[in-house]
Amino acid sequence: MAESTRLVDRVAARIDDALDTRETVLAAISPDLAPLVRQSRELLAGGKRFRALFCYWGWQSVAAIAHDADGLAELEGADLERELPAVVSVAAALELFHAAALVHDDIMDRSDLRRGRLSAHRAFERLHRDAEWDGDAATFGTSTALLLGDLLLGWSDELFEEGLALLADREAAQAARAEFFRMRTEVTVGQYLDVLEEDSWRSRPDNEALPRAHRVIVYKSAKYSVEAPLAIGGALAGGSLAQLAALREFGLPLGVAFQLRDDMLGVFGDPEVTGKPSGDDLREGKRTVLVGLARQKMPPTAVRVLDELLGDPGLDDAQVRMLQNTMRDSGAADQVERIIAHNVRVAREALADAPLSGSARAELAQLADRVTRRDS
């Protein structure tokens, strides 16, 4: 835990340093660009840094072992310190990528809040309104947030490349870059599949709802939240095919469990803890595994009510509570909890005989609990 805390502190310092550098560049262009940096700092100041942690422990799981005649032997910390600046930069780049994804996601979901504060497009909308500028404040907010997301994506690329430039092993750098490129493609198309599902579900057979919801989970979240950061970290250390496969076998089911927990919080979470209104996913019309299971278990009349209300941004608190109770009573919420537990168990089993550092495997097992037992 102490090592993870130090890593998080180093990543935060690297992010601050990167934003300081970019702020200087933007200030030389125009003082009007200050809100872009200010909003970037606000977005990147919080969060649990899970992607950075998975990247680090993916790297550590490979870098901390050496193959010799006697098998696997732990290396000393000093031998790892030389490559750490590269890993910290790459881990920080993943956090910038995540911030960019959140900005774009909040626009698509029409979310007002992020971590208890105004989402980026709403913050820029308020800036416009407070300044009493011409034009439509909401349009300005959305347009500016889109640009901020794009800017953060570009800065993420820059920071990633700065990290790779510090690696002595150029083959490892190339492998990590390939993993990063794959992650960007997968999360983008996963986001599209999510948007598609919200609008096209009526035209699909009911028996496709659950597999389609699962596919969204895998590509929108599971891979980029857990599996890809692990694989990127393992690749940075020059991981073998067997080691990268082991990290994926652990990461994918854990990523699924991670997103299922997120889906549960999106419906049942405490707004004082999550920083978002209770039942936000219900107002946004998310066609999650939870919803798919509930529709399977509820009587036809209840399904019709659910389908009519889901996705209505004007749902009041009483309607949200009614839908929450209906989903609980159907048994869908309990089944999702069982699916989460199953995926965590599968992930842990993948670690048991993996050709990875023993200390890293222990930390990854602890992380598995943290990401799936959270309340925000």
UniProtKB/TrEMBL annotation:
SUPFAM superfamilies: Terpenoid synthases. CDD domains: Trans_IPPS_HT. It holds the Pfam family polyprenyl_synt. Its cofactor is Mg(2+). The keyword Heme does not apply. InterPro entries: Isoprenoid_synthase_dom_sf (IPR008949), Polyprenyl_synt (IPR000092), Polyprenyl_synt_CS (IPR033749). The lineage of its organism: Bacteria, Bacillati, Actinomycetota, Actinomycetes, Micrococcales. Keywords: Magnesium, Metal-binding, Transferase. Transmembrane segments: none annotated. Belongs to the FPP/GGPP synthase family. It comes from the Bacteria. This is Polyprenyl synthetase family protein.
